[in-house]
């Protein structure tokens, strides 16, 4: 699929350069590689925790597994009678679990995948788990049990070594509404989280009896995604347009609310070893937050212990909206629930105390995931955003935000943060991080070579609701039937370059003093783009004195600027080659001489600097060879210094013995 024209990169410096952080540099290198069209809306995506980091996606009655290295599907499972949901890899990447509308849970062996169609199409296990749809399937950290969560609000735990559909544990009426998301602890094989459309996220201990969770938090909106952050110490919930972070240790205390999405947040995931939280939403955005679970439509998130009897979760929190996703953070100490437009973080240890609420989505949060070893929380929503948050004690700040072309339903990221999969409608987009070149080691050098890492602009406010009034009636709010395609605002130079009018673009740059004298960044960026298209000789040839004179003056002034030299040196060399054999106007000869003089001065300066460097090296070498003087020779020339006191008298007196009259000293002394 062809990509739209991108505006020219701006070589920024000064105050705006300081606004950029290393995180912006890190996440800006995530570029879209491929996009695949699926038979229906994307319902889930999951990355294998181990190399080669396969990504699995579900859409309608198809389960697909893609190789992110070649960006091609290697296995497609389509022998399902009804839609499938909730694809999830085991920790070792060997097994893939998926739920479905039939209420069945299937396990597939993906260990021997290497080429298209090499994996067996028949599942290893088929469990008739529920009588209603199963949206969420999670593996325990040990990989021996699987937890299934259904639309009827029930939760079941199965032993994957057993072939029969007999659950180890059943939690009836765990939620009052559909359980939409879940997460398992990375530390304990008995702790897991459920999130529901009843606005609650609950932390459960399977060892506890009854239906009482460890922690229960109210997100305040239907929860679309949950995540556990910071070693399962923080719970992130996504629902509505917000992401909320909860302190699990304090019982579900709200830590922070992220409100960076304009529409519903649909998904979340972690990146950068869990230090970044990515969120996607229906506002076409993928946001990246600092950071450094299960969800249900009954607004409750619950933490369960599979060892406990009964249907009582360890923690139950009320998100306040239907929960779409849950996560466990900080060593299972914090529960994150996503529902409505918020993501909430709860302290599990304190019984579900709310730690924080993330309100960075403007529409419903649909998904969450962890990145960067659990230090980043990613959330996606219906506002077409994927947000990345801190989870490592930085106040759950929003680090970065990705804009997507469509609402985000599912979100996943590889364990090494190199690949990211985003499900949008019936599209699956795969992103891969670019390799940092030697010129992108620092932010200053990255912009010096025109890396195009512009500081993120302010998020535009939502458009006003359109109104319509018929003749003789009153105004009524109406909904647009067809969304307007976003238009990229382009300047005059960008428009000409998009039309491949290179000669005209250079002509406009040097006929207008505003560009070549007051905006050199724009001129250099245009030359970089033209040179990349191998059209620089054609853009410089056939020019008159009105454009060659300012071009030569521009080179004399900015040729030896450190951030412009690489590009302008190529421009100057090409210009001399083009006009070497042509008859140049006599008035232009003196400007070529000025350019020659400028180059000569720079060469002289370089020679002087080399001489200075050589002299300094000689001084440094001679000083290093000299030894420190011995202590016995310190007073060799002048001897030992002795300081004696001089006595001053405040009275007038005569020295009768020596016959010398002293000078009178008058002083008023208060006695």
Task: Please describe the structure with a list of short key phrases separated by commas or semicolons.
WD40_repeat_dom_sf; 8-stranded mixed barrel; 41 strands; WD40_rpt; 671 residues; 19% helix; WD40/YVTN_repeat-like_dom_sf; WD repeat; Methylamine Dehydrogenase, Chain H
Shape: elongated
Tally of DSSP β-strands: 41
| Count of individual helical segments | 11
How many discrete structural domains?
2
CATH topology of the largest domain: Methylamine Dehydrogenase, Chain H
Which sheet architecture does the biggest sheet show? 8 strands, mixed, barrel
Structural class: alpha+beta
Strand content: 35-45%
CATH superfamily of the largest domain: YVTN repeat-like/Quinoprotein amine dehydrogenase
How helical, in percent, are the residues? Answer: 10-25%
Distance between the termini: 101 Å
What is the average per-residue confidence, as pLDDT, rounded to a whole number? 79
CATH class category label of the largest domain: Mainly Beta
Indicate the CATH architecture of the largest domain: 7 Propeller
Model regions low in confidence, pLDDT < 50 over at least 5 residues: 13-18, 449-459, 652-671
Tell me the strand order in the biggest sheet.
17-18-19-20-29-28-27-26
The radius of gyration computed from the alpha-carbon positions, rounded to a whole number of angstroms, is: 35 Å
